[in-house]
Amino acid sequence: MGPRHFDWRRLEELATNLLVRAGASEQHARTVAQSLVHADLRGIESHGLARLPIYLERINAGVIRLDSEPKVIMQEGATALIDGDNHLGAVVGMAALDQAISLARQMGVGFVGVRHSNHFGSCSYYAEQAIERGQILLVLSNAPEAMAPTGGIRPFFGTNPVAVGIPAGKQPPFLLDMATSVAARGKIALAEKRGESIPADWAIDSEGNPTTSPQAALAGSLLPIGGAKGYGLAMFIDILCGILTGAACGPGVRSLYDNLEHPQNIGHVFMAVDIERFWPLSVFQRRMDAYINEIKSVPRRAGIEEIMIPGEIERRNMESQKSKGITLATGIAKELERLCAEIGLDLRDACIEE
Amino acid sequence: MGPRHFDWRRLEELATNLLVRAGASEQHARTVAQSLVHADLRGIESHGLARLPIYLERINAGVIRLDSEPKVIMQEGATALIDGDNHLGAVVGMAALDQAISLARQMGVGFVGVRHSNHFGSCSYYAEQAIERGQILLVLSNAPEAMAPTGGIRPFFGTNPVAVGIPAGKQPPFLLDMATSVAARGKIALAEKRGESIPADWAIDSEGNPTTSPQAALAGSLLPIGGAKGYGLAMFIDILCGILTGAACGPGVRSLYDNLEHPQNIGHVFMAVDIERFWPLSVFQRRMDAYINEIKSVPRRAGIEEIMIPGEIERRNMESQKSKGITLATGIAKELERLCAEIGLDLRDACIEE
């Protein structure tokens, strides 16, 4: 089966069914399925259905636990702490999002820490929903070790992502979703597969020297953006998500793939700000539109057709893939096909065209 | 007069006197003097007493206003909005810091927006004080145009800085203070003076091409860290500091140097988090110490003696310059000498050694 176009709603149904058959409630299964298909729709394959097989494997291994619910274990003023009880990451993430927005509506700002969570998909899933609710959202998460501190040569920090969602009016909203590493590990693995070299600022080898060899990079450490600046950003995110919340931090965060004995114990921070404390939403949206127009009017480098706002390319991908279908890579489609067949479903039912 | 060593307390006195003679109250003058000397002590000359002459010039030009006080114009729940009334930036910044910490103590988190502010020195001044008060602080500020959006070729965003302060126990605290550009404009100006070339990832020329010529870079745009990631971070900071607070944003923020007709109308955001909602401070500090120890134990690249925590080098500079004296560059010392002489003071009184 080669790469094909799939209807996003039918993929969501299939993923929901697979998770329900693994033991998740209908509602939890749908949340996770939505978060994965959301990433595929935006063109962020690395955080899409490609992750479903390992989620199912971790459920079967008992390190993602479905027998309880994320709990608010502290709520004082405008802060809260959620214990995810090692549930599916997107289920925990949605609980944190709802709590942060609820606090922001009451208090103007909501700061929610999360411990005992899992890989929660792409941060943009949460930022997008905050935007739809007219709120500003900042999401931070730590992640398994991948980057050394500046001067070090062994991975310590994850590629700890930060995402921000801010609504606009007629213009596309601001949706930044970035890892604090220059490049994703997946991109280096892809270069290795293709026998290509990588730019010298992506990674260091196991002795700390810059390398263009994907093999040497995979045995070494990813580099943070901006040198010591990105190291600082990754550490800041790790302290808030790990030390402050009581989740794991540094190399204590377990791998999604290489460790099926222990829960990951990832930590997150969700912070929402209620725009309406500062402006009526419609006024803020008009100000954002004027501002975005101004940015788009900046003179461009030869060959650049349009200046894009963070998240705008992914938004266009989403529109196009919603109508034309999601293209899944052959490897991913094959694995989904196998998983579907195991429970008597057929991935081909989700195809738009042969 | 060549470069000399100066006693930091006496420099602070002189700077306070200069500001008082320009019309500032004793208390306001001392705040600004402290913020500038703090930067010099940390070895961040660009944000130290080198800025005092232009502050005085802007007071004389009436675009920094001393006839009122920063006002809290909105306070609801855990959010507040401060109008700086175009007062001295550090005076406005301190009002915002106090408000953010006061809200954090009441509500667990405090989110304070600021409009009508000025250049407020180095963000680390505020982060350091939050650390001393056992609070986590995030400071954001926008700044005059210097960086183009990705794909653009004209400066639009400032080098919009972000700073974070987080207390530790026996280990040095975490104090990240970074611009979102790869390099500071001042570094490029210095390379020009010295006839040196600059790395190709610092700036683009006026047609958008990477350049190693400091002249071409100064006529072009600074580059953000991590390409489009840094563009996103700078835009995020501008939206929060400018659009949300009602301060200027983008190229609307006026230059500190090139515009003596209009107030800068810089915007800031100060966000404090009360650690004690999550852990007794002493427990958090022990956890930070263990974590920092772990980072410092990561194997190092050949030639690296120690892995440093963000802010640690500057902390050591401070300790050393507090005891051995601050070294001021000849140009800065000369200008201070001239300003002191105008009001009958002698900079040489602050010298530690001839």
From TrEMBL, chains A, B:
Record has Oxidoreductase as a keyword: yes
Domain of life: Bacteria
Pfam family, one: Ldh_2
Keywords: Oxidoreductase
Keyword NAD tagged: no
Coiled coil stretches, renumbered: none
Family matches, as PANTHER family: MALATE DEHYDROGENASE (PTHR11091:SF0), OXIDOREDUCTASE-RELATED (PTHR11091)
Family assignment from sequence similarity: Belongs to the LDH2/MDH2 oxidoreductase family.
Protein name from the UniProt record: Ldh family oxidoreductase
Source organism of the structure: Brevibacillus brevis
